[in-house]
């Protein structure tokens, strides 16, 4: 009788043709991840721009309300049109106004007539309060470079009963400490944002 050899019922393992991850799959994965990262960065940048514009708008409204309150207090100066054609960008912020119509540090408020109070109001809103180091605050520092406030009488022949429009304009997507704000304001004044208020004495 011939010798019988056992026959294995287990098939020989097939050699896998795929060895690890190919370079193409890695590149595709990197491209997909890159698009995702860029998308997230774009969303974050858009959110920051909206946040900056909203903050600047809040400050612009505050400045406009500050000026309207001052004009309501100094009604005789409004009647004499002393606030008409005011432009904060033309205000000189390097010299302390004299007399200074409110308490300043250890100094008491000085007596001011309607004209002097109007000059003081325009300086305060445009430049801020005066300290030992100079003026701080106001449109000049609270808003980006290139921002300004204008006051214009709504009537061609302005009278004591005329209303006034206050406008605060500033470059969009810039903050008060931005180094590029002045470049935007000079080279490319658009886009810009604006807040307007109307005052009727």
Could you characterize what this model shows?
The chain is α+β, with helices and mostly antiparallel strands. It has one domain. The chain is built from 5 helices and 6 strands. The protein has helices at 23-73, 75-79, 114-127, 138-142, 181-187, and strands at residues 86-87, 129-131, 134-136, 148-153, 164-171, 192-199. The chain has a 4-stranded antiparallel sheet with strand order 1-4-5-6. Helix 1 packs antiparallel against helix 3 (114-127). It is elongated and about 85 Å long.
Radius of gyration: 34 Å
How far apart the termini lie comes to 129 Å
- Percent helix, as a range, is 40-55%
Q: Mind describing the biggest β-sheet?
A: 4 strands, antiparallel
Question: Which spans of ≥5 residues are poorly predicted at pLDDT below 50?
Answer: 177-186
Spatial strand sequence of the major β-sheet: 1-4-5-6
What is the typical, i.e. mean, pLDDT?
82
Number of helices: 5
Please give the number of β-strands: 6
What sequence of helices (H) and strands (E) makes up the elements?
Answer: HHEHEEHEEHE
Overall geometry: elongated
Question: How big a fraction of the residues is strand?
Answer: 5-15%
Number of domains: 1
User: What is the structural class?
Assistant: alpha+beta
Brief overview, please?
This protein has 201 residues and is an alpha+beta fold.
Strand-helix topology:
Elements: H1 23-73, H2 75-79, E1 86-87, H3 114-127, E2 129-131, E3 134-136, H4 138-142, E4 148-153, E5 164-171, H5 181-187, E6 192-199
Antiparallel strand pairs: 1-4, 2-3, 4-5, 5-6
Helix pairs in contact: 1-3
